[in-house]
Amino acid sequence: MKAVRTDLKMADGRTIYYYDESEVSRNAVDNRPVEDRPGIGEMRLDVLTNEWISMAAHRQTRAFLPPKELCPLCPTKPGLDSEIADSNYQVVVFENRSPSFSDPKGSFNLPEYSGLQTPVVPSAGHCEVICFTDHHEGCFGQLPLSQIRLVMEAWRDRVREISKLPYVEHIAPFENRGEEVGVTLNHPHGQIYAYSFVPPRTEKMAAIAIDYFKKYGRPLISDVIAREIKDQVRVIAENDLWIAYVPFASRYPYEIHVVPKRFVPDLAELTDSEADAYPAIAKEVLLRLDGVFGIDMAYIAAWHQAPVRSARKELGLHWQITSIRRQPGKLKYLAGSESALGAFIMDMKPEQSAEQLRAVKL
Predict the structure, then answer these.
(1) Fold classified for 202-359
(2) Per residue in 264-313, pLDDT tens?
(3) What CATH code would you report for 4-200?
């Protein structure tokens, strides 16, 4: 698929990108009053863990669960001037109105650890919203395969382009679904966060992947896939180019990893054939997730990929879907051990949840 991208300016100077399957005339003008954009936040170093924390107080005023008729992600219509000026769209991406990270407007260098003397720096980075469809109802897993493919093309394009920003070190597309995991807008959408540092979990995974590659001469994720194919008990879906499984040491009641069988560092490096094969397996695993209890399962679906400038031959791309739902009326709360110490405790074995997911009738 070669998506047609149209770039337009929004009223406040942000850029919106329309992605269409074919040529479409996109020239709608954003006629909303011009509002000042929020200033950039600041990043402070937690010296106890050497982790950067972004202070983005301006996000307190962002939209919170507006009714459908006021949804800022629906197309513009009489009575609603939304973020998307056109009266329809297939997939759109635009800069976040209340970003956690922003363009530092000039040269930027992340300071090295200096204990209590480590300086406060601007929250450098880039944040975008990606709308999966112009329909307010529904979800990613219910989209037609062609629509999921278009979303994939938008992800690939954005990763390719954002990687060129000199202050960006890591890019993470993700989707939050359900109020239980903090969704503030119910329209089917995701976000793309680009950090000026390598986030803690990615940094840890990269270090382990690099060490493994040095010892064995091959990517760790490739051996993980080989084990899942050999064991089979945790595999829930598979095609020629992708595999989906519950990880051997899952942290959540329902956790699924969707991984290309060929090692690739990020979304931009997927071949067209791999991108073409993704929608069917993505749709299947999300429908299986909803089918476990016959309800819309709240989840976080995040793309883990190599940093922009490091671990490119060691850390492999994978899509991680996690749900805190353990029963129809019960959630797994991340309490003392998980939240305070980062030590996860699972109430059931991964093989059990994999069996439940495979048993769902589609």
Answers:
(1) HIT family, subunit A (3.30.428)
(2) 999 999 999 999 999 999 999 999 999 999 999 999 999 999 999 999 99
(3) 3.30.428.10
Question: 3-state DSSP: the chain helix, strand, coil percent, rounded to 5?
Answer: 30, 25, 45
CA distance 205 to 207: 6
> How crowded is residue 231: how many other Cβ atoms within 10 Å of its Cβ?
12
What residue segments make up the domains of the chain, in order of their start? 4-200, 202-359
* H-type alpha helices, 63-178: 145-162
Tokens linked to 179: 């109020």
Give the DSSP letter of residue 348: S
Three-state DSSP class for residue 99: coil
Q: Which residues are catalytic?
A: 189
- Give, in order, the Cα–Cα distances in Å from 8 to each of 27, 94, 189, 193: 7, 10, 20, 21
pLDDT of residue 63: 61
Q: Which two tokens stand for residue 224?
A: 């993980």
The reply to whether domains 4-200 and 202-359 share a CATH topology is yes
**b/e per residue 46-81 (b: at least 16 CB within 10 A):** eeeeeebebebebbeeeeeeeeeeebbbbbbeeeee
| pLDDT tens sequence across 111-125 | 999 999 999 999 999
